[in-house]
Specification:
It is built from 4 helices and 4 strands. The chain has a domain of 101 residues: Alpha-Beta Complex (Spore Coat Polysaccharide Biosynthesis Protein SpsA, Chain A). Helix 2 links the parallel strand 2 and strand 3. The chain starts with 17 loop residues before the first strand and ends in a 31-residue tail after the last helix. The chain has a 4-stranded parallel beta sheet, sandwiched between helices. Helices cover 28% and strands 16% of the residues.
Length: 154
């Protein structure tokens, strides 16, 4: 027996074509620049989109910074959770809330992965059921700053 979650997966939004999901936790110093980069990219592509920022119980001023951006850019939507759910539960909730949107894109809020490669993924969206991007050239943590120490070598 299939369990129903009460969402019509065939429902199509007539206005919104893309929901960008961005979980955030204690990023007050970086979040404004990150959001502005994403807004600029999406506006340049002329997409019907909303950028949904899920504040996961930040203890700094992240929510206030996002509210300031939201006031200037209505495409930015803050979901302000007062308690920390954790990264996984937060993004799962975000996906559930946007199942009616034809396209969902998830990105992080720390600015390590910017929007510059988004157009390439967007162009290929019709060719695949799922597209995943990953960062290349990332330097691994050294033993001095890694909580796990240096990886063992064989």
């Amino acid at each position: 027996m299939q369990k129903s979650i009460g969402i019509d997966l065939n429902q199509q939004s007539t206005l919104l074509h893309l929901a960008i999901i961005m979980p955030v936790y204690n990023e007050e110093d970086a979040i404004k620049g990150v959001l502005m980069d994403w807004v600029s990219m999406q506006d340049a592509l002329s997409l019907d989109y909303e950028l949904h920022v899920y504040n996961d119980g930040s203890t700094d001023n992240t929510a206030e910074v996002v509210r300031d951006v939201e006031a200037m850019h209505p495409c930015v939507v803050l979901h302000d959770r007062k308690e920390n759910w954790g990264h996984g539960p937060t993004i799962l909730a975000a996906y559930r809330e946007h199942l009616h949107v034809p396209w969902i894109f998830q990105t992080d809020s720390d600015g390590e992965i910017g929007p510059e490669h988004f157009p390439e993924l967007w162009e290929k969206r019709e060719d695949y059921d799922l597209l995943l991007g990953y960062r290349t050239g990332r330097k691994s943590l050294s033993s001095e700053n890694s909580p796990l120490g240096a990886p063992e070598r064989s």
